Amino acid sequence: MKATIERATLLKGLSHVQSVVERRNTIPILSNVLLEATAEGQLRMMATDLDLQINDSVAAAVDQPGSTTVSAHTLFDIARKLPEGAQVQLTAAEGRMTIVAGRARFSLGTLPRDDFPVIAEGELPTQFELPVELLKQIIDKTRFAISTEETRYYLNGIFLHVAEDNGNPVLKAAATDGHRLARVTIDRPNGAEGMPDVIVPRKCVGELRKLLDEVDGSVGVSLSGTKIRFDLGQAILTSKLIDGTFPDYSRVIPTANDKILKLDPKAFMQGVDRVSTIATEKTRAVKMALDRDRITLSVTSPENGTASEEVPGEYTSLGFEIGFNSRYLLDILAQIDSDLVEVHLADAAAPTLIRENDKAPALYVLMPMRV
Is residue 320 within 8 Å of 309, Cβ to Cβ? Predict the structure, then answer.
């Protein structure tokens, strides 16, 4: 294999694929990126961790088509440190890869292309497209609530399923860690009818979100009950899905919370952030005392002292006190784009519903805590 490629082009392609590669691998070839120079003037790159795979292709001047695998992180670091505008010559033969750029020359060990594992997609019967901006919104408004507890592996991703809402066909994305729930509802895209319920793993969601910043237009989504593929122009992301059953989260979404608090999410967020400065790392508890049109936030920490702040809000129900984990509350408030947020409360022990309004695509549920 012999190909010449502009440094910025190589770096861009490698930045897409190398982040899938785990830093520590028991299987040596999983540390490598597969490079394939084609007669059509393309340098194809592929990396995998056996659950997730990214393919990308960039333009290159190919003198001799061929393929090999080389350490992904090493090649990426070399490309990063080469001078801007450099032409990079990649030559692979007899178990070595030579990289030449200007006066710099590197020789790296390679592993055979035939040993490189590829995720077999199989049939992906459900296929639809989503606008890039909409897919970004779905991810941003839900992924903060994905659980990181490996014991409840079925919560380690975003749950996608189709449903009917008041007779309208919709696609819902939900994530929860047992303390909070985030859900986004959009119109069901054409082609998504009959789609199986799927859980997209956290790592796939993270890689997809990074790639979306470089794509315009729309993204092709193809899936089966076990795999999902995202077509992002030059890049293709394929992932296994989480083999588990997502809990029936609709049961925790309160429908009868009749105490409604309306406030400015930014002012509320800043107030919570300020008083939680002295909260202990372990509980991060902030207390909210509600009175007619008066909301007092307070934190009491045995080590650090006390803090309180009044925030403006509209509240006309009976007064009471409720406590929340300030970190969880701030994560939710950061997703609110409008100037007004509605907090639907029942009592100090019941789940609380947070949303912009009843027409908003996103809603959040937060479990209170004792303070």
Answer: no
